[in-house]
């Protein structure tokens, strides 16, 4: 989690800019300085050369001839040259020394009389000047070979003296100037460069720093936003899975230190997908935001409510054990009980919550979350609303859930199989049709019950091809039996999500036509949950089925929360009392009272009443006496494969109708 806390330090940007620009300016200054020194020096040398040439040509050379350089000078020559020197000094006060050399390197005249007659030491400038070029150099202050009475660095110039008609110089004119004015000019230029550079740097800082500071502020804000985005859910602003894992890790470390347990709750809204599909994502999103606010309101400041995605929330409760976690879960379920007003729609929301607590259910965030997930699926499937994790739930483990990935393939490759369970008339014993029940014949896991995969298919939309597969195969079977002289009605279970699909009636109509099946040969069993999510669309779909002549039964009646008015309003033909009441009827007067009420309700509304879960003779008799119409259950037969169901149909068609209430005994 270290990366999570690592933040960008945009301040370093300004510092880096300051250091870099300073280094660049210093470098630029150094280069300019060197270049300027060279330029000033070259200019000084050129100017000294020009002066030397002018003095030599105007003042000295005319006093001599080429022969004077080789033959030596007369006294008159020397006096004339001395006089010229005085004149030249008058015009060029900076002039330090002047010498005249013969081409063979002998000093023939100079202001330092003691040097006359000496030979010039070998020097590059001297030799080069003898080729006819004016040469110059900066004369080092350390050199001993300097004119007497001078100090510091000097500028030395050699000018070749070439007389008309001659191709080579007769001699050389040498002149010394002080270097100090050149050095002063260089210093002056350097100061100017420095001033320009410092000024430029300051201007750069003044212009750039506010821009950098604002960029730096924006970067810092962006870093904060990025961190927030990385750790929070964009829709609800709640912590996301990453932050939850981080906090769970910290809470579990703390729990190791102080011995306090940590509970993790996983909450999944029931049928949220239906709301999303039917009312639109905008409503779904708003609902999720409302749900988040309501859940957060029921938690302590130290608890973490996170959204893991879709309609899935997680709640981390530090210092909370499994029992206390369950109390919190109950409070959350209660909090969601009153409807949410989204725009002008009032939406009822229910949730299933799974609870896992450390240390018993796991000691790391991953295990706790996985087990809370397992418990949540158990709560969803058993309709218990809240479940604490238990090893027995592990049938719903992620490995099992991974089956979902294979389900699509299973549909395509016919790994699904149908079972058929008979329903019989409680008063005559006549067969009143078969319920079609789906199974998945899995190559590794064997026969998988529908409860293990249908809720998942509903969550992913796979329910559409799945229901189509069931209808297709059930109709084929009907036709096969019909051709064998066995006529019956098949009841097919239809999911809530199928009923919110407006194209579903067309799909059914096309299948009926393709198989040449009459609508009366088919019955749909629907559950109350369909009516909650999107009553208007579901009603329209049911009306189309009624118009087509397909009867519809309300399955598992009593377990949902449908409004009784639905029963009267909707085009229903039958209600199926949930097996939980039928099974409990014998031992529970309450269950028996409920069964009786449902029978009375159905009769009053003109609906056929079917009891499922009829396992015993006593139950059969009891239901017959209470006025129930049809029974379905293990007493008659378990759900069986098509060939066995065919035998049942054949046996039933042979037996005479029983008029008393004795249940049919079947020998197949
Ligand atoms: P259901 O529609 O209420 O089906 C009745 C369930 O009760 C069946 O479970 C059946 O095997 C079981 N049952 C029947 N008689 C007895 C009895 O006497 N005692 C007991 N204890 N149980 C009995 P099954 O086959 O496991 O199906 C479970 C549920 O899966 C069904 O409940 C139905 O809601 C769903 N389902 C099954 N097939 C399909 C299908 O093709 N499409 C859809 N959407 N759902 C299906
Ligand atoms: Mg059913
Ligand atoms: Mg049922």
Enumerate the strands of the largest sheet in spatial order, edge to edge or round the barrel: 13-14-16-17-18-19-20-21
Going by CATH, the architecture of the largest domain would be Alpha-Beta Barrel
Low-confidence stretches: 1-8
How many structural domains? 3
Number of strands: 21
Mean pLDDT: 87
Q: Report the radius of gyration as a whole number of Å.
A: 54 Å
Hetero groups bound?
ligand C2E, magnesium ion
Using the coordinates shown, work out and report the CATH topology of the largest domain: TIM Barrel
Number of H/I helices: 24
Describe the fold and architecture.
- Helix 23 links the parallel strand 20 and strand 21.
- Helix 2 runs antiparallel to helix 6, helix 8 runs antiparallel to helix 9 and helix 15 packs parallel to helix 17.
- This protein folds into three domains: 171 residues, PAS domain (Beta-Lactamase, 2-Layer Sandwich), CATH 3.30.450; 154 residues, Reverse transcriptase/Diguanylate cyclase domain (Alpha-Beta Plaits); 240 residues, TIM Barrel (Alpha-Beta Barrel).
- The protein is rod-shaped and about 170 Å long.
- 51% of the residues lie in helices and 18% in strands.
- It has 668 residues and is α/β, with parallel strands linked by helices.
- The structure holds ligand C2E and magnesium ion (MG) (2 copies).
- The site of ligand C2E has 23 residues, from strand 14, helix 14 and strand 18.
């Amino acid at each position: 989690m270290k990366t999570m806390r690592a933040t960008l330090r945009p301040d370093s940007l300004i510092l880096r800019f300051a250091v870099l620009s300073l280094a660049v300016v210093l470098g630029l200054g150094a280069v300019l300085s060197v270049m300027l020194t060279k330029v000033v020096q070259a200019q000084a040398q050129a100017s000294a050369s020009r002066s030397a040439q002018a003095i030599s040509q105007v003042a000295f050379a005319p006093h001599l001839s080429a022969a004077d350089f080789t033959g030596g000078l007369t006294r008159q020559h020397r006096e004339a040259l001395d006089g010229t020197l005085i004149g030249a000094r008058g015009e060029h006060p900076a002039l330090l020394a002047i010498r005249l050399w013969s081409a063979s390197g002998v000093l023939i005249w100079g202001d330092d009389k003691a040097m006359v007659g000496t030979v010039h030491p070998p020097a590059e400038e001297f030799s080069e000047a003898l080729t006819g070029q004016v040469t110059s150099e900066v004369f080092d202050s350390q050199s001993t070979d300097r004119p007497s009475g001078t100090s510091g660095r000097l500028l030395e110039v050699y000018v070749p003296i070439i007389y008309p008609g001659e191709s080579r110089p007769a001699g050389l004119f040498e002149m010394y100037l002080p270097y100090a004015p050149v050095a002063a000019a260089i210093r002056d230029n350097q100061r100017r460069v420095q001033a320009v550079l410092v000024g430029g740097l300051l201007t750069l800082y003044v212009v750039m720093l506010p821009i950098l500071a604002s960029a730096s502020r924006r970067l810092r804000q962006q870093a904060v936003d990025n961190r927030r985005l990385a750790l929070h859910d964009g829709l609800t602003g709640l912590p996301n899975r990453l932050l939850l894992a981080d906090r769970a890790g910290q809470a579990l470390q703390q729990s190791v230190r102080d011995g306090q347990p940590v509970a993790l709750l996983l909450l999944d809204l029931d049928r949220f997908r239906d709301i999303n599909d039917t009312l639109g994502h905008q409503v779904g999103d708003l609902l999720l935001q409302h749900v988040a606010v309501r859940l957060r309101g029921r938690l302590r400041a130290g608890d973490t409510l996170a959204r893991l995605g879709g309609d899935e929330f997680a709640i981390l409760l530090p210092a909370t054990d499994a029992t206390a976690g369950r109390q919190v879960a109950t409070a959350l379920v209660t909090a969601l009980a009153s409807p949410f007003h989204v725009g002008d729609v009032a939406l009822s929301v229910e949730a299933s919550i799974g609870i896992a607590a450390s240390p018993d259910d796991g000691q790391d965030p991953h295990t706790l979350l996985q087990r809370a997930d397992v418990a949540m699926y158990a709560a969803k499937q058993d309709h218990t609303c809240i479940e604490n994790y238990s090893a027995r739930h592990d049938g719903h483990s992620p490995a099992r859930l991974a089956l979902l990935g294979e389900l699509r393939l299973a549909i395509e490759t016919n790994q699904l199989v149908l079972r058929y369970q008979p329903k019989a008339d409680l008063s005559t014993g006549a067969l009143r049709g078969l319920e079609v029940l789906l199974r998945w014949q899995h190559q590794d896991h064997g026969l998988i019950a529908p409860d293990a995969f249908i809720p998942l298919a509903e969550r992913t939309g796979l329910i559409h091809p799945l229901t189509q597969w069931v209808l297709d195969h059930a109709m084929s079977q009907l036709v096969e039996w019909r051709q064998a002289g066995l006529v019956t009605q098949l009841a097919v279970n239809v999911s809530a999500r199928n009923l919110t699909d407006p194209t579903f009636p067309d799909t059914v109509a096309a299948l009926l036509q393709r198989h040449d099946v009459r609508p009366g040969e088919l019955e749909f069993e629907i559950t109350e949950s369909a009516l909650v999510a999107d009553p208007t669309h579901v009603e329209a779909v049911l009306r189309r089925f009624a118009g087509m002549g397909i009867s519809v039964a309300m399955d598992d009646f009593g377990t949902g929360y449908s409004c009784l008015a639905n029963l009267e309003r909707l085009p229903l033909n039958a209600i199926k009392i949930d097996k939980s009441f039928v099974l409990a009827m014998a031992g529970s007067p309450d269950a028996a009272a409920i069964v009786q009420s449902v029978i009375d309700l159905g009769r009053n509304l003109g609906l056929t009443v079917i009891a499922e879960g009829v396992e015993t003779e006593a139950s059969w008799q009891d239901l017959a006496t209470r006025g129930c119409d049809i029974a379905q259950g293990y007493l008659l037969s378990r759900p069986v494969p098509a060939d066995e169901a065919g035998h049942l149909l054949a046996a039933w068609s042979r037996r005479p109708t029983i008029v008393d209430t004795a249940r049919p005994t079947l020998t197949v």
